[in-house]
Specification:
heterodimer; A: about 325 residues; mainly alpha; two-stranded antiparallel sheet; 16 helices; 2 strands; about 0% strand; globular; B: about 500 residues; alpha/beta; Rossmann fold; 2 domains; 6-stranded mixed β-sheet; ABC_transporter-like_CS (chain B); translocase (chain B); ATP-binding (chain B); AAA+_ATPase (chain B); sugar transport (chain B)
């Protein structure tokens, strides 16, 4: 047995070490995309542009971590785009209309976002409403509430330092928002890979019944996952507010679909139980680089939508093909 | 045999290779009208490959088949069905939300004027059901039917296709004694109609009852053929495993007098069992027997916290620990090896190591961190301990049934539980792996664990238990000691 264990350790491939299983294809795709854009445009492979890409993916990246957890346990969260808008509006209202410090606004926004996630999670676990439906309901509710706060108006006029968090590149390259995204990536990856809670999510996604019989508190974990997804959507809303220097109830429209696309391109299985954060990061980068590159190439936004749709279909088809 | 004794189907020198590996080495087999040929062998012996070739699921690499005298080479399952081969799979493939009639005709609905002809469908289905002596309305939904009835509907489906040859793959895996007998009555009727039957099973006792001939396979070859089923079980088993068997069941140790688990007046919230009382002692193996539907599985699931309890209590070493969830039960040291290892025991597309780690994540973690290395290390130790033939990073669905079951057992025993509940521990598992599971059970008892074994296999319950509780229709019909338990006394209580 000790004989067989040694080569087993030696066989650990690079892919295993980074929990890349299922994401090696997307990584190659990302690499090819970057090489292509570097050759075909002068502007792409410059530090300035690459930093831009990072700035542009902050909102998507933060939400995608929560969505990865949700999809990993076999769920779906359609509410994240609306929760993002609701969180923005709560923050803006608390800070600019009620006049509290902006920190209080941020806290209020995150609490509301967590609460939205908890409601979705409880509908799923307590009332056995399918995740698709309960988060669809929450999507509508959160969007409605976001509009009700100001009757559809936007709120502007935040302190200058607030939006500077998204623009000043500390040390010449790192904005606070990008740093925040990187922290979310690292924490999200670490939790999933190295804690018993994170490993349990894989068990739940693989088979909720096996997980329950294994003594995992499936209901609690499920609610927890939707709370995390809500909070991260709220956090993404605050980052978006920094980037836009305003908040509006229409923000984040269809972001849930971009987020799901990023997670799925990154190799996380919609049926649950397989995938990971590294794959999602690659998926987010593919979408970010693709958007940026198509802009540099002067492709119209309409054509961009077509290209991104094709990429999603190809990524998932390639993954399914590989499994056969 | 009647005057027309020429085979319906003959296989001559059938070989099958997957890449460079040959899995079937020249199989010859004749099936005559009106005979039941039992196809036996351990998992991996090639039985299912043979039935897949006959039913057109996979083509043979070489060799030839003749069907009623003419060359037969089905390109796909459709061809085989059209020729008259009915295959009844081990896993039932019925659609629960459709009616019986719809299930019988799925994929080939009778049509009139381009629309589904529901009346013909209903009448035909009802004729098929009657032929099997099954009194069920064809418009009933399949959902909620007993496994036995579902099994018979699969057979009715094959009959409406005018099957001349039926392949039954482990048809009794989920059936109790009485249902098995009913199925056998139908098989005898089909025999009388001149249908040839290939019967695949691990239950040797059944083979003696139903088969006319026995064909034993091992490692992809036909190793022995008996012209009668009246062969001693041991002879057949030895042909299957290719060595002489010392014994099937291990010697049992003496349990201590001290009760570990006490169940008092337990009644299930779903009403499937009522007022059950018993105690299991330290080092004792407590068997639970009964027909399918007697409430055995529900009872042990409730004890393990998996199903809700309406009233009554479960005591462990004198303390009331009546569990509300599997988590509760596991914390008190009661673990369940569930009935269906594929649905309840394993995440099939995850690795063996992960599966073993799932209930033990807190134990696997080092300083709160669950690393891949720790998972592999933890699992490796337990894979070795329970003799699982496989590597930690292999997916669970790549293992044989016996090894899968060992993984399910391994994931629990890693916690050193005080009570281990095994529900149908050897269902669908081949003879060789079976005896090693019995060894594990006996070993647990020897270590002082209280063990509960639920089984539909009478020989198994009798062989591994110190005492046997028999259940009938949700009630405990009686508890028998090792000395007084035999197949007659158990069946008397079970049908009481």
């Amino acid at each position: 047995m000790t004989m067989t264990q040694a080569p087993q350790a030696g066989r650990m491939r690079l892919a295993d070490m980074f929990s890349l299983s299922g994401a090696t294809g997307p990584l190659i795709g990302l690499f090819v995309l970057c090489v292509f854009l570097s050759v075909s445009t002068d502007a792409f492979f410059t530090l300035r542009n690459l930093l831009n890409v990072l700035d542009q993916i902050t909102v998507l990246g933060i939400m995608a971590v929560g969505m990865t957890y949700v999809i990993l346990i076999g769920g779906i969260d359609l509410a994240v785009g609306s929760v993002l808008a609701l969180a923005m509006m709560v923050m803006g209202y608390t800070a600019n209309v009620l006049g509290y410090p902006i920190g209080v606004g941020i806290a209020a926004a995150l609490v509301v976002a967590a609460f939205s996630g908890a409601v979705s999670g409880l509908m799923i676990t307590l009332f056995r409403v399918p995740a698709f439906i309960s988060t669809l309901a929450m999507m509508s509710i959160a969007r409605g509430l976001a509009n009700m706060i100001t009757d559809g108006q936007q709120i502007v006029g935040f302190p200058a330092w607030f939006s500077m968090l998204a623009f000043i590149r500390h040390g010449g390259f790192l904005t606070v928002t990008v740093a925040l995204m990187l922290v979310v990536f690292v924490l999200g990856w670490f939790y999933l890979r190295y804690t018993s809670g994170g490993r349990s999510l894989y068990a739940i996604g693989g088979s909720p019944e096996v997980a329950r019989l294994a003594g995992i508190n499936v209901s609690l974990m499920t609610v927890g996952v939707y709370v995390v997804s809500g909070v991260l959507a709220g956090l993404a809303g605050i980052v978006l507010a920094m980037r836009l220097d305003s908040v509006q109830p229409t923000a984040g429209f269809t972001y849930e679909l971009d987020t799901i696309a990023a997670v799925v391109i990154g190799g996380t299985s919609l049926s649950g139980g397989q995938g990971g954060i590294i794959g999602t990061i690659i998926g987010v980068l593919i979408i970010g680089v693709l958007r940026n590159g198509l802009n540099l190439l002067g492709v119209s936004p309409f054509t961009q939508a077509v290209v991104i749709g094709v990429v999603i279909a190809l990524a998932v088809a390639a993954e399914a093909f590989k499994k056969r | 045999m009647t005057s027309d004794n020429s085979p319906i189907l003959s296989l001559k020198g059938i070989r099958k290779s997957y890449g460079p590996i040959e899995v079937l080495h020249g199989i010859d087999l004749d099936i005559r009208p009106g005979e039941v040929v039992a196809l036996l062998g351990e998992n991996g012996a090639g039985k299912s490959t043979v039935s897949k070739i006959i039913s057109g699921t996979v083509p043979p690499s070489s060799g030839e088949m003749t069907w009623q005298g003419a060359p037969y080479a089905p390109a796909n399952p459709r061809d085989a069905i059209d020729a008259g081969v009915g295959m009844i799979h081990q896993e039932l493939l019925l659609l629960p939300h459709l009616t019986i009639a719809e299930n019988v005709f799925v994929g080939r609905y009778p049509r009139r004027n381009g629309l589904v002809d529901r009346r013909t469908m209903r009448d035909e289905a009802s004729r098929g059901l009657r032929r099997l002596g099954l009194d069920l309305p064809p418009n009933r939904l399949v959902q909620g039917l007993s496994t036995a009835n579902q099994q018979l509907i699969e057979i009715a489906k094959a009959l409406t296709l005018n099957a001349r040859l039926l392949i039954l793959d482990e048809p009794t895996a989920a059936l109790g004694g009485e249902e098995t007998q009913r199925l056998f009555d139908q098989i005898r009727r089909l025999k009388a109609d001149g249908v040839g039957i290939i019967y695949i099973s691990h239950r040797l006792e059944e083979i003696r009852q139903i088969a006319d001939r026995v064909v034993v396979m091992r490692d992809g070859a036909k190793v022995q053929e008996f012209d009668s089923a009246d062969v001693p079980v041991r002879t057949i088993v030895e042909a299957m495993v290719g060595r002489s068997l010392e014994r099937m069941f291990p010697a049992l140790g003496q349990p201590s007098a001290e009760p570990v688990l006490e169940v008092q007046g337990l009644t299930g919230a779903n009403g499937r069992f009522r007022d059950v009382n018993f105690a299991v002692r330290k080092g004792e193996i407590f068997g639970i027997a009964g027909l399918v539907g007697a409430g055995r599985t529900e009872l042990v699931r409730a004890i393990a916290g998996a199903d809700p309890i309406a009233s009554g209590s479960v005591h462990l070493e004198g303390q009331d620990i009546t569990p509300k969830s599997p988590r509760d039960a596991i914390r008190s040291g009661i673990v369940l090896v569930p009935e269906d290892r594929k649905l309840q025991g394993l995440v099939l597309d995850h690795s063996i190591a992960e599966n073993i780690a799932y209930p033990n994540l807190a134990q696997v973690a080092q300083a709160g961190l669950v690393t891949g290395g720790a998972v592999q290390g933890f699992a490796g130790h337990n894979i070795k301990r329970f003799g699982v033939k496989g590597q930690g990073n292999q997916n669970a669905n790549e293992l044989s049934g016996g090894n899968q079951q060992k993984v399910v057992i391994a994931k629990w025993l890693a916690r050193n539980p005080r009570v281990v509940v095994l529900d149908e521990p050897t269902r669908g598992i081949d003879v060789g792996a079976r005896s090693s599971i019995y060894d594990i059970i006996a070993g647990l008892a020897a270590e002082g664990v209280a063990v509960i074994v639920v089984s539909s296999d009478l020989e198994e319950v009798l062989g591994v238990s110190h005492r046997i509780m028999v259940m009938a229709a949700g009630r405990q019909a009686g508890i028998l000691d090792y000395a007084e338990a035999n197949d007659v006394s158990v069946m008397e209580l079970a049908t009481a």
